[in-house]
Amino acid sequence: MSLYKIKKATNCIIESVPAHKILEALGIRKGVNVRVLIRQPFGGPVVIRVGQRDIAVSHEYAKQITVKEVV
Amino acid sequence: MHCRDNREEIHRTGEIPRILLIGNPNVGKSVIFSKLTGHEVMASNYAGTTVSYSSGKAKLYGKQAVITDVPGMYSLEATSSAEEVALNLLNAGADTVICVLDATNLERNLNFALQLKERGLPLVFALNLVDVAEQKGIYIDVLALQKELGFPVIPTVAVRNIGLAELMSKAFAAAAQPGNARKNHVLSSEERWKEVGRIIGIVQKVEHRHPTFWERLGDSMIMPFPGLLIAALVLAASLGVVVGGGKGLRAGLLLPLVNDFYVPFVSNLVSSFIPEGMIRNILIGDYGILIKSIEWPFALILPYVFLFYIVLSFLEDTGYLPRLGVLADGIMRRLGIQGGDLIPMMIGYGCAVPAILGTRAATTFKQRLIVSALVVLAVPCASQTGAFVALLGDQSVLVLLLVYFISLCVIFLSGMLLKRIVPGQSDTILIEVPNLLIPNTHALFKKMWIRIKHFMIEAGIPMLFGVAIAALVAETGVLVNFSKLMEPIVVNWLGLPGEASLSLILGVLRRELAVMPLLEMELSTVQLLIGSLVALFYMPCLTVLGVLIKEFGVRVAAAISVSTIIFALFFAGLINQAINLILSIV
């Protein structure tokens, strides 16, 4: 499922990420645990927690990132 | 500061070793640099504060080194013009490279550290922010990390000077023993992350803690609710401090000082030596050099600039601005820019120069150009805000609010237009939300000092020139002739008194000087509004023009200047004509 469609506060594992230098450098990569903190209205970004850090990811990027829910 | 880099010689100077300070964005490189060298550079709590390099000498135990503060980079591949600068510095080589690691975010920082190791650079690591990490329950085994990395690792708290002496002595030791580093096998991205994971497993222990009040506050600031409410409160409080506090300072302290002591003293002094006539008028008349060159900058403008920078510096150091950027992204993307570009725009409310330079951290040319154009066109700088408050604050607060409302509308509409006409692509938002921190008072004072000193130098001299020109053209009759020439525009189209053409001359020098002459005229409410709008949208000041030429070339700078002048005169006149039409019907 795309990261953009995940409900708030759900724990996920990233399955695939588009090739992008900053995404990778920010630690957004396959196999990493993420949690969506908030989805901003008006086409704004989703804010995700990766490790200890919060990162705002635009919906364009978020739609290209696929994740799997962790039960 | 962004505007004036301390570019000392960074070439090999005899035996003095050269040290580079590098690392991911927002890990504290600039704080370490200014502590080690005593140089004044800007440091803030967000990625992209440093967009160009500064060098300075550090002395310790009788040894010297030239240290260079390098813009932060996410990886060894450049994605912005600030990162290009960083990469070039790294490629030029150094005797020692100090890599600063953020202890609150070690995993990602280690990835960068391993890339440096693969390059075979002579490294020393500073593990910064260990105090914040411990508050968050993150514990790092420094000795184990040192063993894994194969280079010295020094825990530091740069804002409080902890660990910096040891860091320097290790850096000197590394510089004295060249050849300690060798090129490592270059890992693939996947292998490198695997290695990072292995090291993290050995060196880092995270204790689960309940989020602190600050962490919860930081999180709630990016929720639409209560985030937007907090944003409104922060903006209202900021305005209150700047406008209310500025008026208080002015009325309670500065105006009495100038009007009751300085002006009578100088007037009496000059009158007793110089007979009535043109020279006396030039010195102490309507635009008297000796009067206005003190009154305008110090009594009218400085209090607002001072208070604005207190507020801005505080917001910068807490880490609030990127959070506001996350909230504003949905709107900003309609202007062809994004939430990450909010910071240079906010800085523009202080001065357009650091705002334009700050866009170097943006990843596309289109965003750089749009942000710069919007700031130059419609964002009043702190000096101009001071002038507006002086002009409108007492007579008509509503007009003051209207001017700022119109400014926001114009930013919005011209952004939408620029999004369509500026060629190229904009990147969508991808930014880190920094830790919310309580600003360090010492660091805050230092930053204030840099900014105020800068204002005194950058603003004081042009303002003196401006006042001198005003006095000369007013007293020699040149103004009368120029006003006649400009009559169709100034009087017929804009509905202002002919004398207001002085604003158009002085506004070239500085933005607030387009407002100040209006203070000396008896204007109606409509004229106050129109005069303010002309000044707001009028061309950038000379210093900003210089920066535009440097960053974008003569053609773009000329295009921006000419279009802002035309827009200012056309738009303000249009409003004037519209108001007159409405008034004649009613």
Mind explaining what this structure looks like?
- The complex is a heterodimer of chains A (about 70) and B (about 575).
- With about 70 residues, chain A is of the alpha+beta class.
- Chain A has a single domain (about 5-70), classed as Ferrous iron transport protein A (FeoA) (SH3 type barrels).
- Helix content of chain A is about 15%, strand content about 40%.
- Chain A contains 2 helices and 5 strands, in the order βαβββαβ.
- The longest helix of chain A has 6 residues, at about 60-65.
- Chain A starts with 10 loop residues before the first strand and ends with a strand.
- Helix content of chain B is about 60%, strand content about 10%.
- In chain B, the strands form 2 sheets. In chain B, strands 2-3-1-4-5-7 form a 6-stranded mixed beta sheet, sandwiched between helices. Chain B has a two-stranded antiparallel sheet with strand order 6-8.
- In chain B, about 50% of the residues are buried.
- Classes of the chains: A alpha+beta (about 70), B alpha/beta (about 575).
- The interface of A and B includes residues 42, 43, 56 and 61 of A.
- β4 of chain A pairs antiparallel with β9 of chain B.
